[in-house]
Design a protein that fits this description.
Layout lengths: L20 E12 L2 E12 L3 E5 L6 H8 L7 E6 L2 E2 L5 H8 L2 E4 L11 H12 L4 H14 L15 H13 L5 E5 L7 H18 L2 E5 L3 H7 L2 E6 L2 E6 L1 H5 L4 H9 L4 H9 L2
Parallel strand pairs: 3-8, 3-9, 6-7, 7-8
Antiparallel strand pairs: 1-2, 1-4, 4-5, 9-10
Helix pairs in contact: 3-4, 3-5, 5-6, 7-10
Length: 275
């Protein structure tokens, strides 16, 4: 199948803030012992858009995200973020750059022993020298922007699943984040709350100007939100591009993956072509 990945020299110069490609992953390899997990992956992540990565369990999606956010160093290849290769960064240079990336973990991963306010304030207390007032102002601004300021003094256990996701997003963007990675954000949620989370992803992009990267197995959600869709299979990118182009060139592995989800092809075609 054809891979819809833009060439590295396409469009605006790499590193320019008006470049529609925010992150370029190029020939990325990662091996653990004898297990070759990422096998020369290349694809693009669009700026201020929802970029969804799908694929069967064991395809390497989570390993890929760890390379992008540089929790691990790839064996070879590049992760170019605004033209800077994160794969080659170390020490304080890496720490400064990585603050521009936030992570919304599966099931939100909030600290149960902290209030909503303290959960969101935690990254500021750990990674900045802001005053108490500056921290309070920043936290309340993020909570207010996501419509949950009234929950500042509540405990995570008092919140619905959808509200917990909002708190997790507020915590992820409190450090002036411009890339936000969602790890299975709809896991364990009922269908109505799933739609709420889908809307939250779009709302966060709009209000905070972030680039969204979403790992998901929820096909209905995927085709509602994706501007760019990347399908991984056994450590390789099979296809990456706008959903409408992807579904027009389904190979057997992607067709089987979508069919197994139970979501009708009519639903997928309608939503993919509507984006």
């Amino acid at each position: 199948m054809r891979v819809f990945a833009a060439k590295a020299d396409a469009g605006s110069p790499e590193g320019a803030k008006d470049d529609p490609i925010h992150i370029r992953v190029r020939d990325l390899h990662k091996t653990y012992g004898d297990h070759h997990v990422l096998k020369g992956i290349s694809f693009d992540i669009l700026r201020k858009r929802t970029n969804v990565v799908i694929g069967p369990s064991g395809s390497g999606k989570s390993v890929l995200m760890r390379q992008i956010i540089r929790l691990e160093r790839p064996d070879s290849g590049q992760v170019l973020v605004d033209g800077v290769d994160y794969a080659g960064l170390e020490g304080m240079a890496l720490e400064r750059r990585r603050r521009g990336m936030g992570m919304v973990f599966q099931m939100s991963a909030l600290f149960d022993s902290m209030t909503v306010f303290d959960n969101v304030a935690f990254p500021l207390r750990e990674h900045t020298k802001l005053s108490r007032k500056e921290i309070r102002d920043r936290v309340m601004e993020r909570l207010d922007g996501l419509g949950i300021a009234r929950a500042a003094n509540k405990w995570p256990a008092e919140l619905s699943g959808g509200m917990q996701r909002r708190v997790a997003v507020a915590r992820a963007v409190v450090l002036e984040t411009d890339v936000l990675i969602y790890d299975e954000p709809t896991t364990g949620l009922d269908p109505l709350t799933v739609r709420t989370v889908d809307e939250l992803i779009a709302e966060t992009e709009s209000k905070f100007g972030v680039t969204s990267i979403v790992i998901s197995h929820d096909m209905a959600s995927v085709f509602r939100i994706a501007d760019q869709l990347t399908f991984m299979h056994f450590g390789e990118v099979i296809v990456s591009g706008p959903p409408a182009e992807v579904i027009d060139q389904l190979d057997d592995s992607l067709r089987d993956f979508i069919d197994a989800s139970g979501v009708s092809r009519e639903f997928i075609a309608e939503h993919a072509r509507g984006r």
